[in-house]
């Protein structure tokens, strides 16, 4: 997935490493932005992330297990509703198996904002994941172009 995302035009990847200025909890994870100028946007959230470990408030995906990672994509309200089958909202506790592999899920924390999550995308979700990342990237490009119409 990293290779696929990195190939997008204007992608900016923030990948904090040990000893960097970023919090230790983010080390080893990947945050993707649209930035034609190759500079980290100051007022934008990433449109996709790859998370490689549990966070304090986000451990249901079991990312502390070997070879597990989670792709998170900001798909927006309309696509979220089409993919998940409900309006964007964090589901009630215990109603979603966030550890399910190769399954499109509401993001455990940011579903309300139109984010989905896929633990270890595979045969069932790979193409959908690639499509949704591409669409999220294009939406980020359009937002950036509106802010800087000279692009």
Key structural traits:
alpha+beta, globular, Aspartate Aminotransferase, domain 1, 151 residues, six-stranded antiparallel beta sheet
User: What is the CATH fold-level name?
Assistant: Aspartate Aminotransferase, domain 1
What quaternary form is this? single chain
Report the CATH architecture.
Alpha-Beta Complex
Number of helices: 3
Number of strands: 6
Low-pLDDT runs of 5+ residues are none
Number of domains: 1
Beta-strand content bin: 15-25%
Please state the CA-atom Rg, rounded to the nearest Å. Answer: 15 Å
Q: Which outline best applies?
A: globular
Largest β-sheet summary: 6 strands, antiparallel
CATH class, named Alpha Beta
Mean pLDDT: 95
Distance between the termini: 27 Å
Percentage of helical residues? 10-25%
Order of adjacent strands in the largest pleated sheet: 1-2-3-4-6-5
Classify the secondary structure makeup into a structural class: alpha+beta
Order of helices and strands: HEEEEHEEH
Your description of this structure?
It comes from Tamaricihabitans halophyticus. It holds the Pfam family DUF6194. InterPro entries: DUF6194 (IPR045676). A hairpin with an 8-residue loop joins strand 5 and strand 6. This protein has helices spanning 2-6, 76-84, 126-147; strands spanning 11-14, 30-34, 48-51, 70-74, 105-106, 115-119. It is globular, with a radius of gyration of 15 Å. The relative contact order is 0.18. It is built from three helices and six strands; from the N terminus they run H-E-E-E-E-H-E-E-H. The chain has a six-stranded antiparallel beta sheet with strand order 1-2-3-4-6-5. With 151 residues, it is α+β, with helices and mostly antiparallel strands. The chain has a single domain (2-147), classed as Aspartate Aminotransferase, domain 1. 24% of the residues lie in helices and 17% in strands. The longest helix is centred in the last third of the chain and has 22 residues, at 126-147.
